[in-house]
Design goal:
inorganic pyrophosphatase (n-terminal core); 17 strands; Diaminopimelate Epimerase, Chain A, domain 1; OB fold (Dihydrolipoamide Acetyltransferase, E2P); 43% helix; 588 residues; single chain; alpha/beta
């Protein structure tokens, strides 16, 4: 339980004119003044940083402008995930806008793109693709969401007579070496004073697009073009799980507002397929992270990610609906494939006692689909609160994807294994690599040694962080409206967990699908008469049986606020994050 300074919360609530519960939550996020509160709760387009502050931006803009004027052929080289494909869409759209003469005649420059196939090509810039591009007359290559470790490929591009601009957010190689390029755009590179270090790849591509477009017409870019671009950048920002603070919060928040008016044919088709009705309700970060993001990612995980670019650039509604439906099928296939492998992993976690003793987990399976190993790693992190690397072994090659926890920089853990890998990269929370399967045992030995040192004395546990107390009788539509201003939520700005003490169950516990529970609860110690509130708890059926919850039982609930728009059962609801008997002294 977070112990909030009630005096500080009251002062902030008074100064910012916000409810006390919201002030308590903001204090847990390091926000102490009314000015900081207003900036956080009301992100605006003008809060975006000047893209020209990014090291390398001037050189990048000058080279792209020269390519447009000379009518050169430009290749955008992306990644196959949502971040990379969205980055391609944004930069392709911007350059084509600038390359189209006002008189409507033929474009000055030609923009083509390449998104690698996950299974056939793998991650990163490929020399063979550059050689083919050179034969086609490409003079400028721009990477998006990749390229920070493409040293040999940068040399190859120069040898082939092509200039290279790298836009990426992944960390530089140890020693801060950079590929030799006309410009490198990455806030994490040495000497870059750009204020926001946590941008995703698509956001960095958007900053280049913003710089190019503002040089042409700053007012029009700010008023019309940039808000539209933020729709796509917001999806990538939330789906790529970068911290939703600072400029990332502005990108996500303003982008979500703009998504209430999806103008592009492809975006309309995808939102329709995902069941997002912008007329009925506001778009949430959940929609971006768990509805749109997975469907976009499914293309690269299961098939060809280049179709995502086609989806978001086509104006043919029939084709857009066809592509959106294909993404839906691929996402279903991805879920089924993921579930099969996760069942195996969960059996290992139940039966292999040695896994419980390890500070981090390295889990390898023969022939697991490479498109889902990153998701599997995330699932295991959620279950175990440990850093996890999941590996698929195919034809003597081990392909790995890792996810981490706060305070454990995963890229630092695999850097000492550089001599074992054929390629690798990533950042503190996510990594990927490939290597001969024969090196697997030595790789695990090294990363386990790193984890033993880094996590010494630290217990692996999923700690429930409670932000503030909010009794059920104070849970009103007005308060719910204020709490919605915490959106977008995600890493760095987790969804608020609230505490309601001594609630009374007014009906028997309803068990759903043998795993989940539904409660009807009201405040126990108040004269306020109110209808029971529905509370849903996922995977809490065993705990409910253990606590012997019955009608009339008193419980403390840790919860997240939910709103149901069902015409019959709609209204405020709560999602149970933790439950205990009210007389219990145990922590959540």
């Amino acid at each position: 339980m977070v112990q909030t300074d009630r005096a500080a919360a009251a002062l902030l609530a008074s100064g910012a004119r916000i409810p006390p519960v919201l002030a308590e939550i903001l204090l847990t996020r390091g926000i102490h003044t009314a000015t900081e509160a207003h900036q956080f709760l009301d992100p605006r387009l003008e809060n975006l940083h000047d893209p020209m502050k990014m090291l390398g931006m001037s050189a990048a803009v000058e080279r792209v402008e020269r390519a447009i004027e000379a009518g050169e052929r430009i290749l955008l080289y992306g990644d196959y995930d949502v971040d990379g494909t969205v980055a391609v869409v944004l930069l392709k759209t911007a350059i084509e806008m600038l390359a189209t003469p006002e008189d409507g005649k033929e474009q000055k420059a030609t923009v083509q793109f390449h998104v690698p196939h996950r299974l056939r090509e793998g991650y990163g810039l490929q020399t063979a693709v550059l050689e083919e591009a050179a034969r086609e007359g490409v003079k400028l290559v721009i990477t998006v969401d990749t390229g920070m470790r493409a040293f040999a490929e940068a040399t190859a591009a120069r040898r082939l007579g092509m200039d290279l601009i790298v836009t990426d957010h992944h960390l530089p190689e140890a020693g801060d070496a950079l590929p030799e390029a006309t410009a490198v755009l990455n806030p994490n590179q040495p000497g870059c004073e750009y204020p926001e270090k946590g941008l995703c790849g698509a956001a960095i591509a958007m900053k280049l697009a913003q710089a190019l477009l503002e040089r042409r017409d700053r007012e029009r870019t700010r008023s019309r073009i940039l808000p539209s671009f933020l729709k796509m950048a917001a999806i990538a920002t939330v789906a790529d799980a970068v911290p939703l603070v600072g400029e990332n919060r502005v990108i996500a928040a303003v982008g979500m507002q703009e998504l209430q008016r999806p103008s592009s044919t492809g975006l309309q088709a995808l939102m329709q397929t995902a069941g997002i009705d912008v007329v009925a309700r506001a778009v949430t970060s959940f929609d971006l992270g768990f509805r749109l993001g997975p469907r976009i990612n499914a293309a690269g995980r299961m098939d060809v990610a280049s179709e995502v670019v086609e989806l978001f650039t086509t104006r043919d509604r029939a084709r857009a609906l066809e592509l959106a439906a294909k993404l839906e099928r691929q996402n279903t296939e991805r879920r089924e494939t993921e579930a099969d492998a996760l069942e195996v992993i969960e059996e290992w976690l139940r039966t292999d006692a040695t896994l419980a003793e390890k500070k981090m987990l390295v889990l390898a399976g023969e022939g697991w689909h490479r498109g889902v190993i990153g998701i599997l790693a995330s699932r295991v992190v959620e279950r175990t609160a440990k850093p996890v690397i999941v590996i698929s072994v195919e034809d003597g090659v081990a392909y790995g994807s890792g996810r981490s926890i706060d305070g454990f920089p995963l890229l630092d853990a695999i850097e000492p294994c550089a001599d074992l890998f054929t390629r690798f990269g990533g950042h503190a929370f996510a990594v990927g690599f490939a290597m001969p399967a024969g090196n697997l045992a030595e790789m695990e030995r090294r990363v386990q040694a790193f984890a033993d040192r880094k996590l010494a004395g630290r217990l692996a546990e999923n700690t429930l962080r409670i932000d503030a107390e909010l009794p059920l009788e104070r849970l009103t539509a007005v308060v719910a409206g204020w709490l919605r201003k915490l959106e977008p939520t995600g890493r760095g700005n987790a969804e608020a967990v609230l505490l309601a003490r001594r609630v009374r169950l007014t009906a028997p516990v309803r068990v759903m699908k043998e795993r989940h529970i539904r409660l009807e609860v009201t405040p126990a110690d108040t004269q306020v008469r109110m209808k029971p509130i529905y509370a849903v708890g996922w995977n809490l059926a065993p705990l409910a049986r253990q606590l012997d919850l019955q009608p009339g039982s008193l419980a403390d609930l840790a919860y997240r606020l939910r709103e149901n728009d069902h015409p019959q059962y709609g209204g405020l609801q709560i999602e149970i994050a933790g439950v205990r008997r009210a007389e219990s002294s145990s922590a959540f």
